[in-house]
Amino acid sequence: MKLDKYIFDAKTLVRQQHSGVLSTHSQSVEGYPFGSVVPYFMTTQGNLIIYISQIAQHTRNIKGNPKVSMTIFDSMQDDSQASGRVTLLGDAELIDNENVTAQYLSLFPQAKSYQQTHDFMFYQIKAERIRYIGGFGKIFWINKADWFTDVEQWLHASSEIVQHMNEDHQDAMTLIVEHQFRLRATNVAMLSAFFEGVHMQVDKQIVYLAFDTPCTTAKQVREQLVAATHAARSASTLAMVN
Questions:
Q1: Superfamily holding 154-241
Q2: DSSP for 106-122?
Q3: Average pLDDT over residues 220-237
Q4: Domain at 2-147, CATH from 2.40.30.30, 3.90.79.10, 3.50.50.60, 2.30.110.10
Q5: Is the pTM of this model over 0.85?
């Protein structure tokens, strides 16, 4: 189905990027939107997690009106009108979850120092509707029922995949990042595993390996990683022959 492909493309874009424009309802200039750039990550289910200061203007706005939007786009593209972008509309709410905290800090290790200020807290933006533009002529609304992913038992499976790759497949990940991202790594570590792809830390850089197709089981995730490894090995062998 075309819808499934658009959702996969939209989620891939959201996972590949690390910051977006958060729009809130201004409390100091009533009736006007207020935009700010904030880091985020998307949960397996499809909600966005942000870590923001309680004294920041956007946080004050959220406390006055929790209805927000986040616009995410590929800033590396030359033509912003032709590149993909996603606007997620939803409600922001405080969240206190150990798994969320661990995931966020693994992707944004610099945020660990914010914990010492005591005024940063996690908010979850629960998706209500999503607008995806994949370029000229590719404009779609995605309902939350289609956007959300069933995550029953996924956290355990995800943790097992990450642990297994880090303990047993360092060589494979090194080949993958060299093939996919042209990075020669000293240290590689998998940080997360989702149905659409995985995050890996390559020395001090974090990259996102998008799968070719969306997965619905841990077995399919492993198959995608095996395929990426085989492709990397084939490319490496071909380069040596040439």
A1: PNP-oxidase-like (3.20.180.10)
A2: HH-GGGGGGGGGS-EEE
A3: 91
A4: 2.30.110.10
A5: yes
